[in-house]
Specification:
- The protein has about 200 residues and is α/β, with parallel strands linked by helices.
- The protein is about 40% helix and about 15% strand.
- It contains seven helices and six strands.
- A six-stranded parallel beta sheet has the order 3-2-1-4-5-6, with helices on both faces.
- α1 links the parallel β1 and β2.
- It is globular and about 55 Å long.
- Keywords: Flavoprotein, FMN, Prenyltransferase, Transferase.
- Its EC number is 2.5.1.129.
- It holds the Pfam family Flavoprotein.
- Belongs to the UbiX/PAD1 family.
Length: about 200
Amino acid sequence: MSPPPRRVIVGISGASGAVYGARLLQALQDMPNVESHLVVSDAGWRNLRHELDMDRASVEALADVVHDLANVGASIASGSFAAHGMVVAPCSMRTLAAVAHGLADNLLTRAADVVLKERRRLVLMVRESPLHLVHLRNMATVTEMGGIVCPPMPAFYQRPTSVGEIVDHSVARVLDLLGLEHALAPQWQGLPLDS
């Protein structure tokens, strides 16, 4: 009898950086025994079209299961849905605020709320700059609730040679946080003392 799949919920909200959600879905697609569940905000769909020229069908094809944002009765809206974790990639400040304050006003924010209440791993790839005080307070609140705020930051110590490598490194960090093995980016081996 094979083990049940590890189910990962991917939310794509309306911040710039739709590439992070798309690349995460691609990486999950290549992992054995991982089942991806996708939910996208209206602004998320708009950014996927604008930033990546991806239509809805192309994005949905990357996920095992696609959920409608308005369907708050979907499987991922319940704590009985055994999710391995959830990533919001990218995470807008509006979505961050809704999660921080438990609004659960659509399926994306409800699923995040459920992941937190069930003490499962929630990773928010927040995208905004500069940040004002409410942004910072919402990040602190989510962190205090057990979520992980993981802004996609370029890691120049890896000496990336393309935008794709920069994106892969950020997605690799998220996969590390979920405890999922990958080959997207090398693990840091350190520098010798004399370098």
